[in-house]
Amino acid sequence: MFKRLLASILLIISANGAIAGDGYQWRNITVGAGGFAPNIIFSPAEEGLAYLRTDMGGAYRWNKKLQRWIPLQDQMAESSYFGIESIAADPKDPEVVHVAAGMYKRNPAAMLRSFDRGEHWEIVPVPFRMGGNEDGRGLGERLAIDPDNTDSLYFGSRHDGLWHSRDRGASWHKVKSFPHPGLGLPEERRTTNAGISFVVFAGESVFAGVADRQSAGLYRSDDDGKSWQKISGGPALLPVKAAVGGNNLYIAYSDNIGPNGIKAGAVYKLDIRYGRWTDITPLPKRAEGGFMGISTSRQDPDIVAVSTINRWRPRDTIYLSHDGGRHWRELESHSTRDVSNTPYLYWGNEDSDFGWWIAGLAINPFDEREIVYTTGATVYRTQNAAADKLLWRPWVAGVEQTAVITLTSLPAGPELLSGFGDISGFVHEDFDRSPQRMLTDPLFANTNTIHYAAQAPNILVRSGTPPHRAPKGPGTTPVPTLAWSEDYGKNWKPLTVPPLKFGDTTKRYDQTGDNAITVSADGSTFMFMAPVPQVSRDRGRHWTPVEGLPLQARPVADRVNAKVFYALDFANSEIFVSRDGGATFNPQNTRGLPEGIRMDEPTNREQAWPLLAAPDREGTLWLVSQRGLYHSTDGGRNFKIVKSGITVELMDFGRPAPGKNAPALFAIGSRDGLRAIWRSDDSGRHWLRINGERHEYGRRFRTIAGDPRHFGRVYVATDGRGIVMGEPAR
């Protein structure tokens, strides 16, 4: 009893960001959702209890008392378990919840079961693979609990048929009588199977939908899974989600498993007593896209809601019926949205969008006026579905479900700037509120790099990728993928670079999003990383090629001397240096770097660059290499390996420890197989692990930034759990 009470106290403290782990406090920097949540699951056993499953950020539980979502898996070290395939809340005991977890088909998969609402988990590895972040992740709940015998659970897998547990998920056995045994793991890396798209109990029967085309359809068992029959009738489409309403089973159909690529769909109702089908597809039946989210009222089985998916023209919407699907009310055109608490949802426009990828849809089982739906960026809720004009607000307090690509902490102005996947990035001025300033003008889909002038930090540059809906084709103007700011990132101006000719090829390298940009220490010089880097000294009006560098070299600016830039020739382990502001480079005749460090050259535009210039004095360089951590204090002429006991993957600089001059070092790295977050106060000779066992975040770390103003403070970009900040416990 005491242990459970203590765990509850710690969880409450953690939700407010004040719990220390290994001498550090950890908390999220608030953005407010930001990624795809495939479904929301209300508990039928307790009012105000709900669970949210995300595709790469784990599971959340709504805490009615705190009025916020609680992340349930931050203590887990296994990355794959943050891809949630399905959640089942016990229909009788609100303390019990089951989660099917597995990110991709080649990753480990497990059933997670909890008897205290997800505060603690028992992990049951399973032999069938999952795909919580693969195509088809918006399909129905594959995990279902028998309401008449909650020891009995079914799970419909993607690749290996139907599975059954008779001991509350402690062990699993394949249902050999099920007609579709599964297609097995596809060999091609990017392909997946839909498999069994949902399992639902209705009366004394259990139903399973199969969305693999070879066996697509609805299957039924009336004898506790001993035998199964495929139900004839219904549309020639894939059953993707289902909901029970009285004696009827409502099913959403699409022609693909989504969330992209769906062109057609339908909604049908099956009378489970007599086997009669009724086409209840909302008009217009020939509209673009399909259907996916579906839910019914527990109070009135004739109340049903269904969402469209992949309907870009005119737009996605939700339909609501009060008579079992005979008549529908379309909701998007009767809706407004208040996104003042998460203003990024404006996307730089005057109004927010109803949303896309609407895969999750739920009517509160205790209040049919409350409807919730999930999108590719947020979760919306209305608490008065009967109103003439529905008001939707994001229901996301506590949810941080984003992939963060880059972070920059400034010595003046806003303390943090971020670059995200899919939602551009932000200026963070209040860590407890969703940022008021999104990185726009231009708006990027992904922001891949942000650099500031070390001696004039109001000057910044950034690079990224065009918005997902950017105009394309003849006659359209490409969206710039470069920008600069002179007010600490609060306002931006686009940068363009003319076509560049190399050999017989002329190309606009500034439109692909593949090429980074950096800035000199005083902010006067911009350098664009084309195959031959280009320099501008007039804010992008004119560009000239640098001289003396091998192709594909990417310079970094000295943080003290504005005239100095460095570049690493990975093929020859050679440092090149410019002392004329990037106009010309010459080799340094570098000593101390191992041969063959080409393996350290980033191959992806989202990877952090391994050559770093330190902020403490001119000529101080660090190289993060698979061969070790290397340090130079003479501008790259000589490097020495730092023997530290950890293998560093990513590194940045923070404020020096009290009484020291050299900056603190923060790193993502490993020691004896333990991947963690580390800090060194003595130039890398000794490292302290600063994230404890309750702050593992699946070890899904993407980049790191030290704070130059606050000793010990560090910002870590995760892949699915947003930005987390750590600082010494007070």
Automatic annotation (TrEMBL):
A GO biological process held by the record: polysaccharide catabolic process
Family stated for the protein in its record: Belongs to the glycosyl hydrolase 74 family.
Annotated signal peptide: 1-20
Family matches, as PANTHER family: OLIGOXYLOGLUCAN-REDUCING END-SPECIFIC XYLOGLUCANASE-RELATED, XYLOGLUCANASE (EUROFUNG)
InterPro entries associated with the record: WD40/YVTN_repeat-like_dom_sf, Xyloglucanase_GH74
Keyword terms of this UniProt record: Carbohydrate metabolism, Glycosidase, Hydrolase, Polysaccharide degradation, Signal
Xref: Gene3D superfamilies: YVTN repeat-like/Quinoprotein amine dehydrogenase (2.130.10.10)
Annotated protein name in UniProt: Uncharacterized protein
Superkingdom, taxonomy of origin: Bacteria
One GO molecular-function entry: hydrolase activity, acting on glycosyl bonds
